[in-house]
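thought: fold this chain, then report.
action: predict
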Amino acid sequence: MMRLPRFRYLAPRTLRDAAVFLAESPGQAMLLAGGTDLLPNMKRRQQTPRTVIGLRNVAELRASRSENGGLVLGAALTLTQCVRDPRVKALYPGLWQAAAQVATPHLRNMGTLGGNLCLDTRCNYYDQSEEWRSAIDYCMKKDGAICWVATSSPKCLAVSSTDTAPALMALGASVRLVSESGERTVRVADLYASDGIHYLTRKREEILADVFLPAASGWRSTYWKLRRRGSFDFPVLSVAAAARFSGSNVEEARIVLGSVASRPLEAPKAAAALAGKKLDDDAIAEAADVASELAKPMDNTDFLLGWRKKMARELVVYALRELRGDDVRELRVKIARQSLAEVG
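observation:
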């Protein structure tokens, strides 16, 4: 049995108190919302904070509201609450699909939107027990000096496996980060860095407080996820896409690839190739070819990396076909291994 290490637990009731507690222990405290990522990591001694700051009693982190034609979602809203919000499903289906495909119903009941955005990067050499990792002399991400995925790599190549981040990036969302000294707003696209260890640009003393989704007028969005099991697996590849239409023509588009690098990857050239065009088969094929060039998966997660790269193009095609209005329900069951019809 893997047990948690000893730690001090603090339970603030306001966001300000949480920020003060976090500032008091820079580099030694971590935030706990649902705990579905942090607690297993602590049991494996991947993360060993001396202080854990629980956010369950901070009511303002669980609020949601309409604002400036868009929607603000508190970071401590559970993924289930996001899935059951009719505004999310109707206006931001890409986010709804992403949240609905995270893990299992039990974990979605606990896991939070902010927690999924801040999800630790994953790797076959890192996500193991303490004994297993010590047997290979650890890895660069924790206690070692070598990235076992690519031993000559100067940085960690652990993979970003968040489902909601690619969807929110495609939707043009931003987050509010709060600290004792103030707050700032950054695009979700700017929240991530291409480094398996330092994968967030959020400072240690900052709390991700809420997510702002801009007005969805004219936009359609979707999210596709590749995994071995449709019941609960992390993505080994994902594609989020959103497009704003004028009639049958695309005015603006965004395409984001997930789980092929240490951060979600925007594909601006592929999106730009769609501007002013109808989403016919030729336009979709061109955009998919360009977007898939970004996919350079490493051999540190499930499935053969060559097949995952090939599937990047296919998932972009499926996503754009869905934005076009094609009936892709059978295809989604075949590829994503989940119909989404039963999720709610």
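thought: worth noting. The radius of gyration is 20 Å.
final: tokens above.
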